Amino acid sequence: TECILEPLSLPESPGDAPAVESSPYVPCIFCKECYLIAEQSQLLKHMIIEHKLVIADVKLVADLRRYILYWKRRFAEQPITDFCSVIRTNTEAPLEEQDNFFLLCDVLPEDRLLREQLQQKRLREILEQQQRERYDTSFHGICMFCDQEFTGNRSVLLNHMAREHAFNIGLPDNIVNCCEFLAVLQEKLDKQVVFCSLQCLYCEKVFRDKNTLKDHMRKKQHRRINAKNKEYDKFYIINYLEFGKSWEEVQSEDDRELLDNLEEDWSDWEEHPVCAVCLFCEQQADTTEKLYLHMQKSHGFDFPKIKSDHGLNFYQQVKLLNFIRREIHHGRCYNCQEKFQSKGGLISHMEETKHITFLPARSTWDQPQYYFPTYENDTLLCTLSDSEDLMTEDQSEDVPVVSEDISNLKALKQSSVLNQLL
């Protein structure tokens, strides 16, 4: 039997706002000097030496260029002493040898607000970028271990490396700027023209040739990245979620502190509707009623009627939906088992032959394996409920709970060892 080795995900509505692009250069707050963003340490050194300005906790500034441009404008409007604390050095030396340095930090409410706004703006841009990558089908990449080429969506390559080479950098949906991430990893594994890298991605030891490096990573089971390497932080969504916190800090937080805030005001909670996806096409709806109506009119599949006619309880509905999802995913008609190369061809066949309307024998789909979702984000499963008329008043009380594998409850009662004990 065919099985699904990695989690599947149904399509979701992509964000439509593009990420904001910025210049690669950052200007000095006080003069016309400019530096590349990658050389921000040179800019900070320049401002300390030439202009006596110190910016506290620069690493916590989400977007240094926007931060610098904001204060460049503000310092042009008002004196620097209106914003910065003054730190005097060499206080015991003669007055002419003393220096005044200016400290810009988030103790100033305006600076704190700016940093928080930049963090929120960056988070929005990162999420929009990640959303575009999720639905991008123009991806082209080569496996770092077997040189096999992959096109389409980035998840194809990432899942291949995880499944075939036990190299797992995380779920595709947790990664952003995937192409840059893969390029960084490939660069470490390759021998460059200017310098020799050939570096293990986990222990970061350097090797003399590529075969030795490959053998090392395989034998030592080092086919993973070094989680302590801060160079990789920018490629994971978790590092953008909270102001001034890394993934380690977020994961190490004690949830017990949340118990102290049970009385907080939840009025700002915004609940966004989650779309459920059709069993047979990509159509989405924000309510199950709309989705059931679509499946009935467009495909001839009346789920409420099937549920009622067959007396399906909650667990049987779950198994049926997962069974249908699985068969459609494999391109197979769940009635006649004919396979098709395309999903469109399969659905056309099922609609024309009316195979979409009738269920196969209950033993085909009413199996424990279909308790497990075919798609990990299948919202339709969250909306199921027992039919109100399936249980009579006599059945509503004293209902025994038994394993679904036990088909003959009466025989069980007669042969049970409990009878001897009684």
UniProtKB/TrEMBL annotation:
UniProt keyword Zinc, yes or no: yes
Residues passing through the membrane, by range: none
Annotated Pfam families: zf-C2H2_2
Record domain C2H2-type: where: 198-227
Keywords, alphabetical: Metal-binding, Zinc, Zinc-finger
Keyword Plastid part of the UniProt annotation: no
Molecular function terms from GO: zinc ion binding
Record PANTHER family: ZINC FINGER PROTEIN 277
Family label: Belongs to the ZNF277 family.
Protein name: Zinc finger protein 277
